[in-house]
Design brief:
This protein has helices at about 10-20, 85-105, 120-130, 135-145, 150-165, 200, 205-225, 245-260, 280-285, 300-305, 315-325, 345-360, 375-380, 390-405, 435-440, 475-480, 495-505; strands at about 1-5, 40-50, 55-70, 70-80, 175-180, 230-235, 265-270, 290-295, 330-340, 360-365, 410-415, 425-430, 445-450, 455-460, 465-470. It is α/β, with parallel strands linked by helices. The chain has 2 domains: about 1-110, Double Stranded RNA Binding Domain, CATH 3.30.160; about 175-435, pyruvate-formate lyase- activating enzyme (Alpha-Beta Horseshoe), CATH 3.80.30.20.
């Protein structure tokens, strides 16, 4: 796609608007400008005061022209600066409204999330709540300023109201710890997570576990020495239950040796692949204080499961779920994906109904999203969809069904190139919300991440500054001599600076 920008608007933001209207698009400066080529032309300029004695900019004028399949559409918006939005936000809204209007004329399509392109719509809603707007006013801002569909505006605001309760009691001395196990038994066709599946690479697990345990020791020691209180621990991946029972016990025992697990508000173990679950593993998890597990069928349709590279069947999931219920681990989450290739609304609605019969504590409804590194793209499959076909109907059915069954939405996020530009929502029974999900997604406090592919988020006490620290991406990089982890920090100036920076950020406003 050809993209030309004239003005000071953020280029990445404009690209995300293009991707919303033309999912899967790639940008090239060298693309030939033919009448049939997809293109966007964006121009912004300040609105200047003309009255005598006045000077300076008072707003923004934005103009956008879109071209696709031999047709063109244009839109112009002028917006004055106000106390409601920062100047940067005003400029983004003006450009976004141009894209929205031109896109509707050209494509006959209205994105349900309006001009919002960010990952965290509930965080935006919470910002307005924190500024003193009530819930109804926030919904109106989302509808009228951001052009968000009324149902989605209500969803984002309801989630923000729920999450604000946790935000208001989260103190600057708390933090969470994320532990990465980037291995899976097989790789799903739509997945781009850093996870390893071949037998040769799975053979790295023993060595990986040794180094990971050293990093766990060092990280918890530093947190203790600096008065940081760990409130949630989340073991994710990959699929952590790819570890065999003895390996899982080594990992959980090392965590328990570093923190009083009974003091944690939540201790989560991802067990997303039913084919990795055994009674012994869950017995060990329960013994070491795990309070929340996630078992992810994605769909209860065996044909779809096979087509997306899942090695388990529906019966495998039901067996794993029974094991989980019998284990005594208090809370179970199940993940579903609406809009998987080949799945109909009827098939997905049956999955939702069956999961509700099981009555897990949490149900997370994702919308199918394909990353650029996913295997499914190499198969030549056309998986991108602007409108999503029956996906919107599937998402709507799942939301209405779980809410009518007594669940409430408690966290929300979006991804690029999601079918139909829909969202991912976590639902919970009252009092069973996954706290780590809220703390991480809304960036309410620092999350220390250990292991390959993990990303630490350092959040200042006033939540006004966030810095990310990236661990080595792949297990073989993580295991390389001298790789920068907390386990070898005494030999690594960068790691010492990392913790010093963390303390500066945390104490800046305390």
């Amino acid at each position: 796609m050809k993209l030309r920008i004239d003005g000071k608007i953020n280029h990445y933001y404009v690209q995300t608007l293009c991707m919303m209207l033309f999912p899967g698009v790639r940008f090239s400066e060298d693309e030939v400008e033919s009448p049939d080529a997809t293109a966007a032309y964006v121009k912004t300029e300040p609105l200047l005061r003309e009255a005598e004695g006045a000077a300076g900019e008072y707003g923004i004028r934005a103009e956008v022209t879109l071209r696709h399949a031999g047709r063109c559409a244009s839109s112009v918006h002028e917006m004055a600066y106000s106390a409601l939005h920062t100047h940067e936000k005003t400029e983004k809204i003006a450009v976004g409204k141009c894209f929205f209007d031109a896109g509707e004329e050209l494509l006959h399509y209205r994105p349900v999330w309006g001009i919002l392109t960010g990952v965290r719509p509930a965080k935006l809603a919470m910002d307005y709540l924190n500024r003193g707007f009530d819930a109804e006013a926030v919904k109106a801002i989302l509808r009228e300023e951001m052009l968000v569909n009324p149902k989605k505006a209500t969803l984002a605001t309801d989630v923000a109201v729920f999450e604000k309760q946790l935000a208001d009691v989260t103190t600057p001395d708390t933090c969470s710890v994320y532990i990465s196990i980037p291995f899976c038994p097989t790789r799903c066709a739509y997945c781009s997570f850093v996870s390893y599946t071949s037998q040769k690479l799975l053979a790295l697990i023993p060595e990986y576990l040794v180094k990971l345990c050293g990093e766990i020791d060092e990280t918890f020691r530093i947190l203790r020495e600096n008065g940081r209180r760990v409130v949630t621990v989340y073991i994710g991946g990959g699929t952590p239950t790819t570890l065999n029972a003895s390996q899982l016990e080594i990992l959980l025992a090392r965590i328990a040796a570093n923190v009083d697990v009974s003091s944690l508000a939540e201790f989560t173990l991802e067990a997303g692949r039913p084919d990795t679950i055994t009674e012994e593993k869950f017995r060990i998890a329960r013994r070491y204080g795990v309070t929340r597990i996630s078992i992810n069928p994605q769909t209860l349709n065996d044909e779809i499961l096979a087509s997306i590279g899942r090695r388990h069947t529906v019966e495998d999931f039901l067996r794993a779920y029974d094991i989980a219920r019998s284990s005594g681990i208090p809370h179970i989450n199940t993940d579903l994906i609406a809009g998987l290739p080949g799945e109909s609304f009827l098939s997905f609605s049956k999955t939702v109904d069956r999961i509700l019969e099981l009555h897990p504590d949490n149900i997370t409804v994702h919308t199918f999203c394909v990353k650029k590194a996913a295997e499914i793209l190499r198969e030549g499959t056309d998986v991108y969809s602007r409108t999503g076909g029956e996906t919107g109907k599937s998402v709507e059915y799942s939301h209405v069904s779980v809410i009518n069954a007594g669940y409430q939405p408690y966290y929300l996020y979006r991804q690029k190139n999601t079918v139909g530009n829909f969202e991912n929502v976590g639902f919970c029974l009252p009092g069973t919300e996954g706290r780590y999900n809220i703390l991480m997604m809304e960036e309410l406090h620092s999350v220390f991440a250990v292991g390959a592919g993990a990303v630490t988020k350092l959040v200042s006490a006033d939540r006004g500054h966030i810095e990310r620290i990236f661990s080595p991406k792949y297990p073989y990089e993580y295991l390389a001599p001298g790789a920068p982890t907390t386990a070898n920090r005494n030999d690594d100036e960068a790691i010492r600076a990392y913790f010093e920076k963390y303390l500066v950020l945390q104490t800046k406003t305390t």
